[in-house]
């Protein structure tokens, strides 16, 4: 009797029974897990009992065949678990990786038919399958050309069938794929894991994939793959026995394996499906489930994630060591190394990319901190880094070294910090080997320290290493940042400040203040002069201030600029603070640095440099006005047949506030001047332009109509929100002759490739109707609501609502800072309350989320007076806080449906 596609499907009762077997297995595993069983034990339990189900279901299929056919299939075929299934560790909803192996052409058709039916049975039972049907020769041939197949066969384990066939597979795989080409095989394994580079991704993700992210279970598998290829050691204990792992490393890897497996199983059970991504919601849930408690300085979830990243760091450090110690050099690389290598410091050998030494000299090269720093200084001078085997020797030596730092070692460390190009790689090496923690013990606190917020994308230690890399890369900048970097005389102080800028995080106090205290101690430890130590500690103390002022304050305000200059002190410190700030913002994450922020920061740098260099501010303002007038005139000369003379343009610009001239591109200023020339006192000009580079639309509103101007800011914000636009930025300006120029930069999510002209015109019509009271914002909201659409879901809520009023920074205006969750309708809600309080918004800075979501408003009373009365300040603060508290709890929902 044969099995073919025409066989009847199994009865519904059999399908239900098979599915129930899988459900009951997962329920028993869940009970074990909830009862406190270790994650690895639960994974093994699932694998063993899933094996039994697979074998039983396969044998049920074979039972429909004739005895002769069953006997032939059993003698000449096998069911082999490969990949994760072969390792004997399963997460609850992992795919099953099976290889159906056949050796005889005569039974191939019967075998394949049986496999097809078995595969369908597995799927019907609720087991997701990844499978292949091959012969031994096919499997081996494919493994030689496909690293994914090769690594899956490392874990091969027979479930059913011919022992001799399975032994033939493992023997031929070992001989033809591994032993005949071990270096190539290892390289294939590395590329299978890290296709973009031999060292894997550069940094840890804050929402990691427990299986696939850097330091995840896949990197643990890589260690096992390489161990199998070189020592036939398939597990951690075997690697320890052959001496490739120290006892401490073996314990650390086992702990990491258990922790990550536990988390992965938890994720699967919670989702009811395969789910390996540790999102922020899941971080909070698992933290609570594990009963992890907060400390005096860390939230409970931060404690949990610090444990996670420390386990991941152990895995990735050892995986990188294994991958590089046995990495095959190309013949060209070997020839280049031989041709260009030369000796340094007697025992060292320098090649084009690394510094190395014969293993027999490792002891004397790592005998003390001075010897190690001499090695790093040589690497810095040659622009290379230590070889991975030399780094491994340093790592093994560091735990036994004294913790004191001699002046000689400190001096050599400062020599390393004076370099630019090799510094990021050398610092990462010093961090990985533990050397940095001897030089700066306080840095140990930041290792794997997580900031649980939505802006920083790296742990504190990784953010610091990224900031150093960003800072040294500024030497290639063609603008003011590059010029500032080139002008810094003592780069070791700048680079040290970058290393220390966030070292104060995680202590429950403002981290800049804690960092200042630590920087003073580090300066003394490294033997810096009093003046040099003061520069480093001042940079750490003030490292947030430049971004705060540039992104949230009106830098045309003389008082703001004067106070900032007083804090900075000297042009030298200003140069370094400018570079530190740029590097810090860039290292927050890929989207943190924008052209807009670069311009604001450069503007503040220029203004402050004029102040600190002794030049009179009034003279500089005239130069700036003249330069802007020249640029605007150049734009107008292209666009207008009979352009306005430059002197006349300069007079026209005098009516604008300095903040407008600083923040508006000359092309936009020229366009605004042309609009202002043609509109009369009653008109409102509204134009929208799509920018494909940023995928945003800018709506510019210009009017001198006094009836329209009153309350226009909150009406415009409301109308844009009602039309489902996300407001990213808002710039408002009022000229001395009473004309308003408001600009809103928005994201129109209804159009992925940019809105069509009719959409932009429709939005402009809505803005005009609201300004002239032909339609109110509430009606516009109702007409544009989308029912049945889920509101955007906030991943987590950890930032407290804050409303602060600053009556000191500006002589003429009161500053309102609103720290709140960024939801649709936020800007409209704030601006409505400000309007109802009888305040006029003179300047707004929106979407300035350097370290928190914050909207900033410069306000005056409707009669133009600055708010100074303490009672009035308290009233404004309490009213805004109450309104925004309601908005944050429930009020935002009306803007999301």
TrEMBL record:
Name under which the protein is recorded: Bifunctional uridylyltransferase/uridylyl-removing enzyme
Keyword check for Hydrolase: yes
The HD domain, residue ranges: 460-583
Lineage: Bacteria, Pseudomonadati, Planctomycetota, Planctomycetia, Planctomycetales
Pfam families: ACT_ACR9_3rd (PF24931), GlnD_UR_UTase (PF08335), HD (PF01966)
Regulation: Uridylyltransferase (UTase) activity is inhibited by glutamine, while glutamine activates uridylyl-removing (UR) activity.
Cofactor(s) the protein needs: Mg(2+)
Gene Ontology molecular function, alphabetical: [protein-PII] uridylyltransferase activity; phosphoric diester hydrolase activity
Name of the gene this protein is made from: glnD
Residue span(s) of domain ACT: 701-785, 815-896
CDD domains xrefs: ACT_ACR-UUR-like_2, ACT_UUR-like_1, NT_GlnE_GlnD_like
Family indicated by similarity: Belongs to the GlnD family.
Keywords: Hydrolase, Magnesium, Multifunctional enzyme, Nucleotidyltransferase, Repeat, Transferase
Superkingdom, taxonomy of origin: Bacteria
Cross-referenced NCBIfam families: UTase_glnD
Native organism: Caulifigura coniformis
Domain description: Has four distinct domains: an N-terminal nucleotidyltransferase (NT) domain responsible for UTase activity, a central HD domain that encodes UR activity, and two C-terminal ACT domains that seem to have a role in glutamine sensing.
EC number: 2.7.7.59, 3.1.4.-
Reactions performed catalytically: [protein-PII]-L-tyrosine + UTP = [protein-PII]-uridylyl-L-tyrosine + diphosphate; [protein-PII]-uridylyl-L-tyrosine + H2O = [protein-PII]-L-tyrosine + UMP + H(+)
Function: Modifies, by uridylylation and deuridylylation, the PII regulatory proteins (GlnB and homologs), in response to the nitrogen status of the cell that GlnD senses through the glutamine level. Under low glutamine levels, catalyzes the conversion of the PII proteins and UTP to PII-UMP and PPi, while under higher glutamine levels, GlnD hydrolyzes PII-UMP to PII and UMP (deuridylylation). Thus, controls uridylylation state and activity of the PII proteins, and plays an important role in the regulation of nitrogen metabolism.
Coiled-coil residue spans: none
Biological process according to GO: regulation of nitrogen utilization
